[in-house]
Amino acid sequence: MEWLVGQGVIGALVLLVAAFALLVKCADWMVEAAADLARCMRVPPILIGIVIVSIGTTTPELAVSIQAALDGKASIALGNAVGSVIYDDGIALPLVALLAPTVVVIDRIILRSATVFLVVAHLGAYWMCADGTLSRGEGMLLVCGFFAYLGYAYWEQRRGRPLMTEEVDFDTPPRSWPTILGLLTIGLAGVLVSSHGIVLAAPVLATAAGVSDVIIALVVVALGTSIPEIATCVTAARKNQGSLAVGNILGADILNICWIAGASATVQDLVVPADVIHFMFPAMLIIVFTMLSLMRWGHRFERWKGVVLLVMCCIYIVALFVVNPGALQTDLHVTPPTGEQVWISD
User: Fold this and answer.
1) Is residue 256 pLDDT above 80, yes or no?
2) What would the 3-class secondary structure string for the chain be?
3) Which of 38, 150, 151, 179 is most buried by a 10 A CB count?
4) In contact, 80 and 257? CB cutoff 8 Å
5) Is the pLDDT of residue 322 over 70?
6) 24 versus 90: which is more confidently predicted?
């Protein structure tokens, strides 16, 4: 992939087209495997989305944030985690509502437990970072919180009788376990590889088109690390697996704060300017609380609710330029684990 990007605009364009084609197919395999996994385990698809799919699709954010922390780029490490929550809720989820052939029904019990953990984790993280530092101890606390959530979600699903959505027919025999695991592994690997290719190619094309460094940092890479979630949500919605997509986003929201930000802080303390903290976190909390309120409203995720979240995300992007555009132009470089250079916003 690096060789193609090195060939200039034509190579970057070829890589971008090929990456998107691979992304679509691999996301399709991953969604099919996840739905079969729900049948085999006889659990709601939303739980599979939260526990399994979201762990895989947030891998790019984890890799970038860990490397940023190692490089001493605390604003990038934390900003990537918080920004991914905003883009997942403000872009990926609206696409589910807009593209799903039927209204997505939300599992009441799992949404209730996810809401409690989301509110506690996000408010707790904001409180920990309010002094401008997310310490190693606080990061470890966030990581422990994620594992506590996994255990609680499984226990509550076993204890109660969650509302099974109509999206999975539990009477239909699933594929064999080796086939399911194979599709899930290949699909996830393909999603991650293709998203990496998009992140590499898009800045080259944007620069050639005369787009500013700020736009490249904000839109191309910040959204690039969220491409796996967006692709999975779009594919799941088109396959009438809306609950799987919603579970993916709920899980990603918890992972981005508890796992990604927390794990990054365990590498070394994340010291971020207070004005950045008090802009990112309130914006994230407003969008997350709105998302949860809309889902709890009738436990249905209609198209108009997706439009509300999409508009809020657009307002956030505009506010980034109006309120604090100068901050976006500092510390924009980070070297990911593979050694190449990419762009990302604070």
Assistant:
1) yes
2) CHHHHHCCHHHHHHHHHHHHHHHHHHHHHHHHHHHHHHHHHCCCHHHHHHHHHHHHHCHHHHHHHHHHHHCCCHHHHHHHHHHHHHHHHHHHHHHHHHHCCCCEECCHHHHHHHHHHHHHHHHHHHHHHCCCEECHHHHHHHHHHHHHHHHHHHHHHHHCCCCCCCCCCCCCCCCCHHHHHHHHHHHHHHHHHHHHHHHHHHHHHHHHCCCCHHHHHHHHHHHHCCHHHHHHHHHHHHCCCHHHHHHHHHHHHHHHHHHHHHHHHHHCCEECCHHHHHHHHHHHHHHHHHHHHHHHCCCEECHHHHHHHHHHHHHHHHHHHHHCHHHHHCCCEECCCCCCCEECCC
3) 38
4) no
5) yes
6) 90
Better pLDDT: 89 or 238: 89
220 pLDDT band, cuts 50/70/90, is: low
Looking from the CA of 327 toward its CB, the CA atoms found within 13 Å total: 20
Percent of the chain, pLDDT > 90?
A: 18
